[in-house]
Amino acid sequence: MLPGILPIKVRLSWLAALLLLLNACVNPVGPDYQRPEIDKPASLPHHPEQTETKSMADLPWWGVFRDKTLQQLIKSAVANNYDLRATVQRIEQSDALARQAQSQLFPQIGYQVGLSNGKNSYFGMAAPFLRGESVSPIVTALNMSWELDIWGRIRRSTEAGYADMLASQEFRRGIMLSLVSSVAQAYFELLQLELRLAIAKKTTQSFDGSLQIFTQRLQFGVASKLETDRALSAKAQVAAHIPDLERQILVKENQINLLLGRNSGTIKRDIGLLQQELPVQIPAGLPSALLERRPDLRQAEQQLIAANARIGVARSLFFPKLGLTAILGRTSLELSGFTAGTSNLYGAFLSLAGPIFQGGMLMAQHDQAIAAYAQAELEYKQAALNAFKEVDNALINSEKLSEIKKQQTIATEALEDAVTVALERYVAGKASYYEVLEAQQQLYPTQVALTETELMQRTVIIQLYKALGGGWKFSDQEWLEAEAGKNVETTTDEGKMHE
């Protein structure tokens, strides 16, 4: 051990221990986070019976969307969507920033080596206490600097950094849930377009049959050209929908492929819209549970936590910074004599530096941090209010759409009978062609409206699942490795919902 090194190491150790004790005894300045009070309804306004703790949100997405083709599309989207993959890099950045902030809690240790060359003289002659006129001193040393986080500036910065990182994770989960919802929505819209195309083709054939009857009667002189012209016009109007629907189908396929992160191509569909299962029971759970389930609410709360921590950072700047700097090394007059004739170099410096006058900058930073927290709190409360509204709206839509579908089904079936009866009466000479055309022209938009309702009934399930924060219990990896029926715990709930 070099002479003099042990005493300085002992003194530094005692000093470090004292500073660590001081650091542990002082709480960081600034308010500790407390979740703000949210006006949570005990039950949903229009559905007071929704008081179960069970929720559709407890199910994985493959437990809600049971079409095997749709499941494969969603799995592909979750694995390959570029927007979702970009969120991973966002999380990595946030994590790195949090670790950067935390690193300031520890001493920063480095090294330095110095080599110089020069001449010295003593009244024009070489200094007697140096060997010759030319000297090349060399210095090697380890240096350490450490800011003691007495007021909690670094701890609050670390707290804010990790809250930002968690917020970015919730942002990714929100993007993932939105992606699943978007794929399911686009897929059902594609199936509805296919159904509308089939109806348009069938209606065109129906008008074509009427046109043939009118043409035959015209040839036999028992009908006028007005009848055939009206029938031809009605047929052409519906037939014009066919290429437009085919165009919309291709555009919808492109939309789905974009969500899947791949180039344009045909989207497989094995089951029609009407064969898609609708849940019999739609448990929404307690409204208060949304705060723990919805990723956008969890993200907003983490942003609130970060804003709260930054108030502490701003307050800590009013207090002096306590720093410790130390150096330990050797110095030699000649590189060749580094092992002999060297001297030890060591020292420690304790600094205290604080603001006196900053022109109001520190107070402005503090005011900005408080305002940012107030903004984040209001945004959190607004997000919670919006969440309750979305769930209630989805449940209202589900209930009313069932009633709408019931009446539309009655109207469609009645008009189908009317078309058949009108044709029979026309052929028998008991009705005019107006009755036939009117019945056919009324049937087509009624059938289309029914397909819209069928689509909306499935859309509302998507909206409710998203509004509830669906799949919140499952990790990102489980979402990627999704397999219907894989999770045993969800089997009972899935069966009840679809029974």
Structural commentary:
It is found in: Cell outer membrane. This protein is of the alpha+beta class. The protein has a single domain (25-106, 150-319, 363-481), classed as Up-down Bundle (Outer membrane efflux proteins (OEP)). The chain contains 13 helices and 6 strands. It has helices spanning 5-25, 61-64, 68-80, 82-103, 153-219, 225-239, 241-259, 290-293, 295-316, 361-427, 433-467, 476-480, 491-498, and strands spanning 108-115, 118-119, 134-135, 138-148, 321-332, 343-353. The strands form 2 sheets. It has a 4-stranded antiparallel β-sheet, with helices on one face. It has a two-stranded antiparallel sheet with strand order 2-3. The radius of gyration is 38 Å and the shape is elongated.
Proper CATH architecture: Up-down Bundle
Biggest beta-sheet profile: 4 strands, antiparallel
Question: What is the structural class?
Answer: alpha+beta
Low-pLDDT ranges: 487-492
Spell out the CATH superfamily: Outer membrane efflux proteins (OEP)
Task: Please give the radius of gyration in angstroms.
Answer: 38 Å
Q: What is the ordering of alpha helices and beta strands?
A: HHHHEEEEHHHHHEEHHHH
| Shape assignment | elongated
Rounded average pLDDT: 84
State the separation between the terminal residues, measured CA to CA: 81 Å
What name is given to the CATH topology? Outer membrane efflux proteins (OEP)
